[in-house]
What does this fold into?
Amino acid sequence: MKKSKMLPGFWPALVIFSLTGQIAWVVENMYFNVFIYKMFQATAADISAMVAASAISATLTTLFIGALSDKIGKRKIFICGGYILWGISIASFALIRLDLIGSLFPMAASASAVCVSLVIILDCVMTFFGSSANDACFNAWLTDATEERGRGAAEGINSMMPLLAILVVFGGFMGFDLDQMESWTAIYLIIGIAVFCIGLSGLFFLKETAVRRPENERYFANIFYGFRPSVIKSNPILYITLLCFAVFGISIQVFMPYLILYYSVSLQMENYVLIMGPAILLAAAATAFYGRLYDKKGFQTSIFPVLLLLFAGYLILFFCKGVVMVFVGSLLMMCGDLMGMAIFGAMLRDYTPKGKAGMFQGLRIFSQVLIPGVIGPAIGALVLKNAETITGDDGTTSFIPNENIFLAAFLVAVGLLFVLLIECYLLKKNEKSNR
It folds into this structure.
């Protein structure tokens, strides 16, 4: 088989921008929750509200900016400029401190409540810049820059970055005491400056893709292009894949916002970073190779083993509390998570209409971020509604996440099986019509 031709410097650009973006998203998706929990005694409902608000911001941003990049016919300026502003917004979180906010809002009944609200607002601002750069334009650039034969391999690399980013952040955070505000200030400044520098350097090394600008299309018409009934009718496999991706994402988001808190608070694993590190490395390596299976064997052969891994991981994490079994369960869960992201991501790129990658990024985020980000954490918060609480030295109380989040995630994933059967039927029907 002839190898796909890529842009000069494609693979380094893919790794650098994808990994840096995912590091920023890890800080938001996994550590903002820890930040407001430890510093401002946030509740599960606060965490759910923050994740939902960010998901809505990401979706709206990707819809508007993705279509705008198609209209203009440029990706690079949005990617690099977005990363620069993204970095600045991340660094701005260093200003959200109880002492500073308390002095600025002396009449507030609770400085902690004000801080939680400010984090949620600034999170939405940060998400606007991050989604413009990464979700909308970097992902459209990746679709433009790859051909069908190489998308599984490229998506395998792209999809392993979230776990590599977790490893980088876990390792980098090991030296910080997350119960101290000074640690969070340093973290936000370090991550913000790093993202800023990558965006700035990208102006010099990132290669622009050849974007086929839509003809005779108005900008606002392009924004909602993917929601037209005629477009849905003509691309059934794309839309059933989006539905599967949404259900898959809901399952992941049931537990993900509470995962670190579960390890550190419920299981009392002070060394959870050392336990998770090897699991992350193994899952990332497995995902990099697994994407090639999609290229060779297709969707139906590659997706069901992923679900078996995910099911096994959930059940082990639900029933087991020992270090070794938590490691095994986490490894299987992470493999299922990343491999599923790779397979669904490659399917979406393969069935995205040519020349309309930017328009469909908003639709992708709708299924990958908005629906999971609103429904998943809400399910998790509902499951944890009556969870046990602990009282700190200052008299404040905090909830303790429990293993029921994994049972709820498992039940959602079972529902995914029924949607996948519909997709497999459509794929077989499509194969017969193309013979």
